[in-house]
Amino acid sequence: MRLLSRRLVLGHLAGISLLPGGPVRAGADEPATLPGTVRFDLGGGEGRPIRRITLYVPPGEAPAAGWPALTLLDGNALVGTAIDIERVQATYPAGSGIGSRFAIVAVGYPTEEAYDSVGRSWDYTPPPGRTYPPYKPGGPPLRTGGAAAFLDFLTRELRPAIARRCPIDRSRQALFGHSFGGLFVLYALAHAPEAFSHWIAASPSIFWEDAALLSSIDGFEKGPPTCARVLLMAGAYEAELAPFQQALPDREQRLARLAEELCRILGDGGGQAAR
C-alpha cells in the first residue's frame, strides 16, 4: 500500500470540496435568534413610552396552572443570559435546584443598545422625581419619578399581553431588577405586594434622590399584614467603597448610603420579608 504524503492528502481533500456531492459551502450570513422567543412592542401614543418585550417560552406543554414566569427589567441587557440559564439549568433540577421550567418576560426598550438611560431613569425611579442634564450631548433631559406609571404598565398592560401569548401561573411570578431596576422592584413591592410572588432586587439604588424609597418602605411596614418572598443582593463594593471612590469628596456620604442598609430594614436575612 502506497503511503500518501501530508501535502498530497490535503490536495485531495481540497479537490473533493469542488466536486458535485462534496461538502456544502456556507451560505449567506443570517441574523441569529434566541430559541423559543418572540419580540413585540407595547405602548406609544399620547405621550406613553414604547417598551420592547421579549417573551421566552420553554419547549413542551405548559403545566396545568401555566408557566411560572420571571419578569426582567433592563431586558435588552439581560434577556440572553436569562434564557441560557433557563435552557441549561432548569432541565437539570437535581443539580440546579430549579424546580420547574419557566417563562421569561424581558422588558426593554426599542434600541439595539444594552441600556436606554432615558427610559430606565424615568420608569424605575419613585415619584416625585427630578430633571437632570442630558445623558449625552444633544440628548433629551433625564427625568425621574415614573415608577407608578411603570408599575401600572406591568400589571395592567403587559400582563394581559403575555396571557394572550402563553398560559402563565399567576401564583408563581417573579420580578427581577438591578441598580435602578432593583430600586423599582422594592418600590413595586411596597405599593403592590400582591403583584408578584417573588421579588429580586440586586444592588438596589436606595440612596437615590435622598432615599425617597424609604417613605414607601415605611408605609409598607405599617400596612396590612402580608408575606412576600424577597431576595436582596449586594455586591462587594456595597459593603465597602470601591477603590476609585476612596478619595472622592463625598466619601462619607457614599458610605452612609450603601445598599446593605436595606437588608437590615426589610427582614431577617433569610430571603423572606414579612409584615
UniProtKB/TrEMBL annotation:
GO molecular function terms attached to this record: hydrolase activity
Keywords annotated in UniProt: Hydrolase
Organism encoding this protein: Methylorubrum zatmanii
InterPro entries registered for this protein in UniProt: AB_hydrolase_fold, Esterase-like, Siderophore_Hydrolase_D
Superkingdom: Bacteria
Family named by the database record: Belongs to the esterase D family.
Name of the protein in question: Alpha/beta hydrolase
